[in-house]
Structures are given as structure tokens and as C-alpha cells.
Amino acid sequence: MSRALAVLDYGAGNLASLEGALARLNVPFVRFTEAAAVPPGVPLVLPGVGHFSAAKRALEARGLWELLQREGPVRGVLGVCLGLQLLCEGSEEAPGEAGLGLLTGVATRFVEPLKVPHMGWNELSQVKAHPAFPTEPSWAYFVHSYALPVSADTVDVCVYGAPFTAIAARGRVLGMQHHPEKSSAPGLAALGGATRWLLEGTDHV
Known about the structure:
Layout: E1 5-8, H1 15-24, E2 29-32, E3 44-46, H2 52-61, H3 64-75, E4 77-80, H4 82-87, E5 90-91, E6 106-109, E7 118-126, E8 138-144, E9 146-147, E10 154-160, E11 162-170, E12 173-176, H5 184-200
């Protein structure tokens, strides 16, 4: 891996723990706050916690929204938690706000009698193989109130009331709903697999 990932800092990411996980995996990365500073061609990492609309506005203000939309599918991009939802078509959290549209689906809110947010450990089940992600069943740590329905882009599902997308992929666009940096060895395996796959420039499935 001669390149480094570009971790996008727009004031809404859980950056310290994610970057700590990348460092433990020996995955090279550099943090960027403005699109103009991001080197050409390098894969992008879009973390995120918080509100869909506020995150979108922050990305737009830094030129990062346009960068993701224009170059994400070519460079490769990994969205984590809210980052996954931003990569998709939209969210019920921000009705009428368009997402980046790089993955299929609109995030919907969990409803009663489910406890919201969905918080804690839950099992993942793979529904289609992808070279970026482990194939064995695993567990992951979640903290979220919105989730994407299962679609053609779904790689792994989690069940909370009903199945939802835990990991998604379309071409070189990848996303994880859980927090891999908080998910112990299985989370690090998934994060390492995804980031190395992007850095190696492997042809997508």
C-alpha cells in the first residue's frame, strides 16, 4: 500500500477512535478538513455521528460533499455509521434532503416497541460475498436510531425487529452501519479488510 486513506473531518465524526483503530491496523491515513487539500485519486473515509442534515451542511461547506459525489465511486469510499447513511439516497431524519446517492436506500427510523436508539452488540450475517469483508459470522457494536433497508447493495444484515443493512457495497463504495472501531477483533477485521481493499485498488465484484 503506497497510498494513504483520506479521512474526512467535517466536525461530525468519531475520529479519534476510528483513527486509533486504523493505526492499530497499520493502515496509512491522513486527516483532511477541506476538499482542496485532498490528493487526487486517494480513497476516502467518511465517518460520522449526529444529524443527517447537519452533517450534509458541514460537508458542503468544506467542498467535501461535491468531492464525494463526483469522485467517490472512482477513488473508493468507506462510510461508517452516519457516513453509511450519507452515502445513500436520503434519511427520514431529514425529509426531502438528498443523500449522496452512491448506495441504494433511504434510512428509516426504528419504531416502537423497539428501544431507540439501537445500542449494543448484535450479530451480523452475510447475504452475499465481497472480497473486502470477512465471510464468517460475527458480532458488532451499534449505536443508531436510523437504518437502511436490505437492498441489492447489502453485504451483511443485522436483525433488530426486522433485518437491516449492516454492511453495504456497490463497486468501490463501501459502508458499515456499526462502529468497527468499537467492535473488538471482528470490527477490526472488517475495517482492515475494507480499507486495505480500497488502498490496493482491487477490482470490485
